[in-house]
Amino acid sequence: MNNEISKFVLERINSHSKSEPKELQDAYMKFKSCMDNLRATLSDEQKKLLNKCENAYALLDGETIDHYYRTGFSDAVIFLDGWRNGKWITDKECKKNMLIDEIKRLYPVGTRVELVKMDDVQAPPVGTKGTVKGVDDIGSLLIDWDNGCGLNAVCGEDIVRKIDD
């Protein structure tokens, strides 16, 4: 069962965080093209306002992703992860340790990630890339951000995606 859970989790993460459906990619490309065309016609002051709108949209997009992740995928993982060796695990500390082990397996040291969402005034900008240094004892990803930021990505709060860079 453990291998099946791990395979399921990895397949879901790989299929949903590395490649979007063609329709979604097309919509993003159309949006980007419109934004580029609009930006070319704007004054410097208007470009600043447009950047604020883009940042607000990125936050909205991250919140949408977070909402659907929390309401579906995470519950399924927690449910499935409670079944080990033919019995249900009810010890919270044991479940926490199993979840941390799974995070370590999915994000080994050296994994490259990109920030999708982080609610912190000192957070690096959305899109900042970094390298995983490890996972702490509460499941946060320790990340060496390319811009030098020292904040960890908190499991269940912040969103990062794996990248191939």
Can you count the beta strands?
Answer: 6
SSE order in H/E notation?
HHHEEHEEEE
Calculate the mean pLDDT score and round it: 80
User: Uncertain spans, ≥5 residues at pLDDT below 50?
Assistant: none
Q: Count every helix, treating DSSP H or I runs of 4 or more residues as helices.
A: 4
Question: What's the gyration radius in Å?
Answer: 18 Å
List the domain count as a whole number: 1
Assembly state of the chains shown:
single chain
Overall form: elongated
- Looking across the biggest beta sheet, what order are the strands in? 5-4-3-6
- Strand % is 15-25%
Structure keywords:
165 residues, alpha+beta, two-stranded antiparallel sheet, 16% strand, elongated
Write structural notes for this entry:
The protein has helices spanning 2-17, 22-40, 44-81, 92-106; strands at 83-84, 87-88, 112-117, 129-135, 141-145, 159-162. The mean pLDDT is 80. The protein has 165 residues and is α+β, with helices and mostly antiparallel strands. The protein has one domain (2-162). The chain starts with a helix and ends with a strand. It contains 4 helices and 6 strands.
Could you give a short description of this structure?
The chain is an alpha+beta fold and 165 residues long.
Provide the fold topology.
Blueprint: H1 2-17, H2 22-40, H3 44-81, E1 83-84, E2 87-88, H4 92-106, E3 112-117, E4 129-135, E5 141-145, E6 159-162
Antiparallel strand pairs: 1-2, 3-4, 3-6, 4-5
